[in-house]
Amino acid sequence: MAAQLSFESLKQSVNDGIIDTVLVCLVDMQGRLMGKRFQAQNFINHSWKETHCCNYLLATDIEMATPEGFASTSWESGYGDYVMRPDMDTLRLLPWLEGTAMVLCDLLDHHTHQDVPHSPRAILKKQIADLATHGWVANMATELEFFLFEGRYKKIAKTGFRKLTPISDYNEDYHILQTTKEECVMRPLRNHLTAAGVPVENSKGEAETGQEELNIRYSDALCCADNHTIAKHATKEIAWQQGYAASFIAKWHHDKVGSASHIHQSLWTTDGKAVFADESAKHGMSETMRHYVAGLIKYAPDYTYFLAPYVNSYKRFAKGTFAPTKIAWSVDNRTAGFRLCGDGEAVRIECRIGGSDLNPYLAQAAQMAAGIAGINEKLELAEQTRGNIYSDDSCPDIPTNLRDAISCLQSSTMLRSSFGDDVVDHYVRAGQWEQEDYDRVVTDYEVARGFERA
Ligand code: ADP
C-alpha cells in the first residue's frame, strides 16, 4: 500500500507548521491503538526508525491488568521492552485531530529484532505470507457496527452504565431521516477517514435503536485490518468530540440486538484474477473457493475465540437477531454463519459470526488459516443449508460460551500448526483470564435475583 502521507510530505508539513504531533502506535491484543505522541520534529530526526514500549502491552487484559501465566513476559522477567518499528506505508494525517499524523508499528523482540510472534500484525502477516506461497492474496472487508449513546464516556460511567440513552428512539435500519439527525458524528467520521486514506464506502443506520454501520471498501488483508483499527478508533474519538459515546461492545443489553463485524473474504492472484470465481460452476464458486469455505466451516469452533473474545461476546449469538447461532453456509441467507454473496468476480464468502469486539488482525488470520487448511486438505463443501437456519437442528452450534471456545482453541491442531504453539498458548491464556475474572465477580443480576429470595 502506498502511504497516504510520504515521509517527505511529513517533513514539509512539519517545516510549514501544519503538523506538530505524530502518534506512533501499535495494535494490542484487544485491537486497540497504544503508543506515544511524538513531537513531530523528534519523530523525523530520530524515532521514525524505531522506538520502544513495555512488553506488557501484549499481555494485559482490557483493564491493563497484568495476569500471570504468559510465557512471553511476567513480573519474574521484569516486563522488558519491545521495539516498535514504524511501518512507514501506514503514515497518514489524522484530520480530526489538529496538527496530527500517525503511523502504525510492527513489534520486534528487543534483542533479536525478530517479529514478536503473538503480536496481531505479525500473526496476520504470517498468514499473508502462507497465502503468497500459493501465488494468492486475500481481499477482505470487515464491517463495523456500533452504538451511539448520548453523553460522553465519563458521564455514562458515573451513572454506573445505567443511564444509557441511544442516539435514536427507534430501529434505524436504512433510515435516512433518523441518520440525518446523526450526521454531526457520522459525516465527519466518513470525511475524516476518507482524508486519512481509509476508503469509506458508506455509513447506514442499523437494525436497533442507536445502532450504526460503517462500511469500508475491501482491500488486502493487512490494509483491511489497519483500516478497521483506525476507523474504530476514529469513531470513538469523533463521537467523543461531538459529545456522544460510541460502543463496540458486542451486546450492551440482553433485549437489544448486538453489534457484529462481518468479514467478507475472497482470494485473488497477484495479477488480479478472482480465484474464487468460476461462472461455469454451481453458484459461481470455483473448486478452490469450495475448499476454502469447507475449511472455514470445519474449523469454525477452533477459531471462534478470535471472533468472540469476551464473556459478553457470546450473548450476541441469539436467534432472530441477525446474529448467527449455527455453523452452516447458505446463498444470500442472513440466518447462516456463512453467507455466499456476490456473483461473477465479486463472489465472496461473508462470515457473520464475529462481533464488533473482535480484533481484525486475529480474526482474519484465523479465518485465512482455516481456509488455507481447507484448500490444502481439499475438503469437500456440503450442500448449502436453506431456510431459517436458527431452527435447523441438523447444523452444529457455534460455541455458546467463552469457556467452550477456549477449549476448542486449546485443542486446535490446525491453529497450532498454522500459528505455532506459543501463539495459541498465549491467546488461550488471555481467554482463560477473561473467564477467571468474570467467574470471580458477583454481578448485579445475581444480587437482584438472590438477595431476598435465595
Ligand atoms: P452487504 O451490505 O450485502 O453485506 P455490501 O455490498 O455492502 O454487502 O459489501 C459489504 C462489504 O463487502 C464491503 O465492505 C465491500 O467492500 C466488500 N466486498 C465487496 N466485494 C468484495 C470481495 N470481492 N472480497 C471481499 N470483500 C468484498
Give short descriptive properties of this protein.
Ubiquitin-like (UB roll); Creatine Kinase, Chain A, domain 2; globular; six-stranded mixed beta sheet; binds adenosine-5'-diphosphate; alpha+beta; five-stranded mixed beta sheet; 454 residues
Protein described:
This protein has 454 residues and is an alpha+beta fold. It has 2 domains: 7-115, Ubiquitin-like (UB roll), CATH 3.10.20; 128-445, Creatine Kinase, Chain A, domain 2, CATH 3.30.590.10. Helices cover 34% and strands 20% of the residues. The protein is built from 14 helices and 15 strands. The mean pLDDT is 97. It binds adenosine-5'-diphosphate.
Please give the number of β-strands: 15
Helix content, binned percent: 25-40%
Question: In one word, what is the shape?
Answer: globular
CATH topology of the largest domain: Creatine Kinase, Chain A, domain 2
Oligomeric state of this protein: single chain
Instruction: Give the terminus-to-terminus CA distance.
Output: 60 Å
Give the strand order, joined by hyphens, for the main sheet: 10-6-12-15-14-13
**Could you say how many structural domains there are in total?**
2
Output the number of helix runs: 14
Largest sheet: 6 strands, mixed
Bound ligands: adenosine-5'-diphosphate
Whole-number radius of gyration?
22 Å
Uncertain segments are: none
CATH domain class name of the largest domain? Alpha Beta
What's the topology here?
Blueprint: H1 7-15, E1 21-27, E2 33-39, H2 40-47, E3 51-54, E4 81-93, E5 100-109, H3 120-132, E6 136-142, E7 144-150, H4 153-158, H5 176-180, H6 183-195, E8 200-205, E9 211-216, E10 219-220, H7 221-241, E11 244-247, E12 263-269, H8 287-298, H9 300-307, E13 329-331, E14 338-341, E15 348-351, H10 360-376, H11 402-410, H12 413-419, H13 421-440, H14 444-450
Parallel strand pairs: 1-5, 13-14
Antiparallel strand pairs: 1-2, 3-4, 4-5, 6-10, 6-12, 7-9, 7-11, 8-9, 12-15, 14-15
